[in-house]
Amino acid sequence: MKIDPNHLHMLAAIIDAGGLSEGAVVLNKSQPSVSRSVAMLEQRLGSRLFEKGKRPLRPTELCQTLAEQGRIVGHASAAAQTAVELYSRGKAGTARVAGTPIFMDGVISNMMAAFQTAYPDVAIHQSYGYLAELSDQLGVGNIDLAICPVTPNEVPPHLNFRPIMRGRNVIACAPSHPLARKSSVKLEDIAAYPWIAPPAGSPLYTDLKTALESIGITDFRVSFTGGSLASIISVMAGSDALTVLPYSVVFMQRTAKTITALPIKLLHPERELGLLWHLDRPMRPAVLRFLKFLETEFKGLADRIDERGREAIWRR
Amino acid sequence: MKIDPNHLHMLAAIIDAGGLSEGAVVLNKSQPSVSRSVAMLEQRLGSRLFEKGKRPLRPTELCQTLAEQGRIVGHASAAAQTAVELYSRGKAGTARVAGTPIFMDGVISNMMAAFQTAYPDVAIHQSYGYLAELSDQLGVGNIDLAICPVTPNEVPPHLNFRPIMRGRNVIACAPSHPLARKSSVKLEDIAAYPWIAPPAGSPLYTDLKTALESIGITDFRVSFTGGSLASIISVMAGSDALTVLPYSVVFMQRTAKTITALPIKLLHPERELGLLWHLDRPMRPAVLRFLKFLETEFKGLADRIDERGREAIWRR
DNA sequence: AATCTTCATACCGTCAGGTTATATTGATTG
DNA sequence: CAATCAATATAACCTGACGGTATGAAGATT
Q1: Which residues of chain A neighbour B80 with C-beta distances below 8 Å?
Q2: Which nucleotide is nearest to B50 (CA to C1')?
């Protein structure tokens, strides 16, 4: 007959509480219940667990050693309990999140930092990808959440899309760039400089083309391509190159002063930055937490961007 | 709702076995049983424990952390199991044993050493006392077993007495003693030497007196009294004093060659060395083991003493 | 598509363990 | 030492968690 961990725990509770009745209170049970359980256990073990007929209840030697294990069981049980609670409140667990490189590096990474200080027990697994891949990964279940610009009518089936920010691109350059000081920039000015292009397959690359076409630039020289945000910033800092970036990315760099936007209006792309997740796959609490966190963060970001925009307008 | 340690253990078993069916085998249960248990647990926790519709059964993150605790529970349970088995076979536990000082030091201690090498997990609590005290201690339940010379008709009530060795006293002295070389010793020889007396209250003290009276010595000089066996041996080694000791005690010192017995026959006391324990207090397995061990040891000892006796006789 | 393996569901019986009420029994005290 | 108190044991009853077998459903494999 195998021994029941619950019984071990019960013994520990009785001993630590100092009596059957007190132990029963600790265990949220009635006194007769634990009394009978002890009696049955004694019978099964074939030896006494508490000395018979001694009123300050005295545990047997065997009982003591069993209670020792019982305390271990109790700890494990309590640990499991708190683990479940943390988990179900989304305060522990893992969130696997992927997104387009520039956004992840330029915007989301900062939010993830904030999230991790708020929820240190939630592990984040980050990866990169564009819409097609992200959709696949969500479908297979390799990631929980994708962050990606999407045109509302091309949302893949079975995926839920929640927009969080209007797409808005700007022409970006280093603060040291000759054009950065000018209050107004003309097309002829721009034409002289080389361009940094995002990776060929990325949406930003098509954005770059359509944006430049929209302001009449059809022929442009690409001097650097394929790098992620850190490379792009470095290259811009050391050259006169220009590039097209989401304004939010530029905005997030405002304190670091590594990028500025030129005062030229580009055509908005149809796409909108948003969160994607699988519809019929229930979201884990930690992921939900992260999602909510991102939403409020983006709301704050949008507000700050608006403010700054108004300021900029007011200054002119 | 509190979490059940059994469930934690079950999760660990399932994961470690690599499937519900395999886990069920490990747990000695049917597959549907564990399947249902898992389902109920999932419902109570409000989150999945195994990913739905994946055939190489994949545990959830939460399930993994719970299983971790489950393994701890499993270990504790197994430890308890072996503890119970060891205990009930008398291979672990405590035996509280008391007895008359000279016997304990001179005979029992050697046997306890042998016992502890055979049963290293049985702790022995030794104490000293004479019959009255021993009886009290047994009655109160402070000791499990007493080893003591008892005259068969003065066995205290409620106590069981099992004789293990005939009482037989001898006159003892150091091997370096002038009388030790003599093949026959006369009373006049003895009269010249001082005596080491056991503690005044001890049975051995009365033995000393009656023994000496039995051989006609009424007036004797006591040069040292009150010491336990180690002291007596030391004093004898450094002096010409004599004393009366149980032959078994002298016998046990044969290899150490610290004491010899003089070839003088003393009157046997009525008492018989034996084991005492409480009648209606069930004996713990470890105590029983120790009791059995003592019995066989004493049997062996008695045989060896007989042999030696025959040898000694043969030599003359 | 067919088959195989494994998990889920249905249904039923049993017993550990929950409850309340009450008896027993060490311990305590005047 | 009787009386009293407090704690444990017992009785009687009931519920539901969990055990089993039989069978359906669904991934995985060929």
Answers
A1: 3, 8, 65-66, 69-70
A2: C7
Same fold: A93-166+271-315 with A169-261? yes
- Residue A12, classified by CB atoms within 10 Å of its CB into exposed (0-12), middle (13-18) or buried (19+), is buried
**pLDDT tens digit sequence for A228-256:** 999 999 999 999 999 999 999 999 998 99
* Contacting B residues, span 84-143, partner chain A, CB-CB under 8 Å: 84, 87-88, 93-94, 141
pLDDT in tens, B204-216: 888 888 888 888 8
Q: Which of A92-106, A130-144, B288-302 has the lowest mean pLDDT?
A: A130-144
Are the C-beta atoms of B93 and B285 separated by less than 8 Å? Answer: yes
**Six-digit token string for B77:** 């349970």
Q: Give the gap in angstroms from C-alpha B281 to the nearest C-alpha of chain A.
A: 10
Q: Which residue is nearest to nucleotide C8 (CA to C1')?
A: B35
Pick out residues 7-36 of chain A having their CB under 7 A from any atom of nucleic acid strand C.
Answer: 7, 28-30, 32-34, 36
Domain B5-88: state its class.
mainly alpha
Mapped onto helix, strand or coil, the DSSP state of residue B61 is helix
Chain B CB contacts of A283 under 8 Å are: none
Q: Choosing among B28, B42, B45, B47, which should be mutated to test the A contact, i.e. which has the most A CBs within 10 A?
A: B47
Interchain contact, A94 vs B61, CB within 8 Å: yes
Helices B5-17 and B31-45: crossing angle in degrees, nearest 10, is: 120
Percent of chain B with pLDDT over 70: 97
CATH architecture of the domain A169-261 equals 3-Layer(aba) Sandwich (3.40)
Contact of B153 with B296, CB cutoff 8 Å: no
- CB of B185 closer than 8 Å to CB of B179: yes
Distance A35 CA to D11 C1' (A): 13
Q: What is d(CA B311, CA B315) in angstroms, rounded to the nearest whole number?
A: 6
Does residue A53 have a pLDDT over 80?
no
> pLDDT-based confidence at B295, cuts 50/70/90?
very high
Contact B77 A62 (CB under 8 A): no
B263 in Cβ contact with B172 (< 8 Å): no
- Fold (CATH) for B93-165+271-315: D-Maltodextrin-Binding Protein; domain 2 (3.40.190)
> For A22-26, A178-182, B83-87, which range has the lowest pLDDT when averaged over its residues?
A178-182
The superfamily CATH assigns to domain A93-166+271-315 is Periplasmic binding protein-like II (3.40.190.10)
- CA of A20: nearest nucleotide by C1' is D8
- The domain locations on chain A are 5-88, 93-166+271-315, 169-261
A51 touches strand C (CB under 7 A): no
Q: How far is the CA of A285 from the C1' of C1 (A)?
A: 41
Q: Which residues of A142-155 are buried (b: 16+ CB within 10 A; e: fewer)?
A: ebbbbbbbbeeeee
- Relative to beta strand B159-166, strand B169-173 is unpaired
Give per-residue pLDDT as tens, B232-268: 999 999 999 999 999 999 999 989 999 999 988 887 7
